[in-house]
Amino acid sequence: MNALLRWLALALCALAGLQLFFVLRIAAMAGVNPESTAMQRSAAIAQLRGPSALHWRQQWVDYAQISDQLKRAVIASEDDGFARHHGVEWQAIERAWAHNERSQQRASARRPARIRGGSTITQQLAKNLLLSGERTLLRKGQELVLALALEALLPKQRILEIYLNSVEWGNGVYGAEAAARHYFRKSARQLSAIEAARLAVMLPAPKRFEKMPQSTYLAARARTIAARMPAAQLP
């Protein structure tokens, strides 16, 4: 029993230490731009293990140098309550939880259930910055904790700035500036409403949409997002 208690204490100390490490990393981002994210490093390792050379495009630009059109498009597409919530949309998580329970019931040993997230922009940033891409309830719980820490330690504009500068927009294409130059040969501050909308709708599957820029779905979804953009509230 004593040995078990010692192992439990060690595990709790390790968990507390990990949370402290994450919090310190987030606090530092108030004034220091992250050089890379966990998601980017994982993708870079996968590229290096493949047959081709490392492909990485990223150029950090300040919040004011990113078109408001793109900010509105991403909010309208990914998280229309971004300016109002505190990092987590609990109703969306409840809906995702119900979906996951149904998926678990239908899952088999050969085909395990996929975990849906109901993620806000803040949660997506938490995952991209510090966590793995696996879809498990444990990782989702850590994502929620980090999202709340991001909202507690950083202003909304800073959260959106880091997100827009680090999110993936194609194979080795990271951030708004690299995406704007890659797809439209212009800077992020020059994007039009429809260009911003086309970039925003790529975010759920950027590598797939990169290969099909003339997709009918992409064009139709971009028009829908463009129509919703005027109502999107900026932080």
Automatic annotation (TrEMBL):
One Pfam family this chain carries?
A: Transgly
* UniProt membrane topology term: Single-pass membrane protein
Keyword terms: Cell inner membrane, Cell membrane, Cell shape, Cell wall biogenesis/degradation, Glycosyltransferase, Membrane, Peptidoglycan synthesis, Transferase, Transmembrane, Transmembrane helix
**Annotated protein name in UniProt:** Biosynthetic peptidoglycan transglycosylase
Record keyword Chloroplast present: no
**Native species of this protein?**
Comamonas faecalis
The record's function comment reads: Peptidoglycan polymerase that catalyzes glycan chain elongation from lipid-linked precursors.
Catalytically driven reaction(s): [GlcNAc-(1->4)-Mur2Ac(oyl-L-Ala-gamma-D-Glu-L-Lys-D-Ala-D-Ala)](n)-di-trans,octa-cis-undecaprenyl diphosphate + beta-D-GlcNAc-(1->4)-Mur2Ac(oyl-L-Ala-gamma-D-Glu-L-Lys-D-Ala-D-Ala)-di-trans,octa-cis-undecaprenyl diphosphate = [GlcNAc-(1->4)-Mur2Ac(oyl-L-Ala-gamma-D-Glu-L-Lys-D-Ala-D-Ala)](n+1)-di-trans,octa-cis-undecaprenyl diphosphate + di-trans,octa-cis-undecaprenyl diphosphate + H(+)
Spell out the family assignment given in the record's similarity comment.
Belongs to the glycosyltransferase 51 family.
- Describe which pathway this protein belongs to, using the record's wording: Cell wall biogenesis; peptidoglycan biosynthesis
Q: Which domain of life is it from?
A: Bacteria
Report domain Glycosyl transferase family positions: 57-229
> Gene name, please?
mtgA
EC number, as in UniProt? 2.4.99.28
Per the annotation, which location comes first and is thus the protein's main one?
A: membrane
Q: Where in the cell is it found?
A: Cell inner membrane
Q: InterPro entries under this entry? A: Glyco_trans_51 (IPR001264), Lysozyme-like_dom_sf (IPR023346), PBP_transglycosylase (IPR036950), Pep_trsgly (IPR011812)
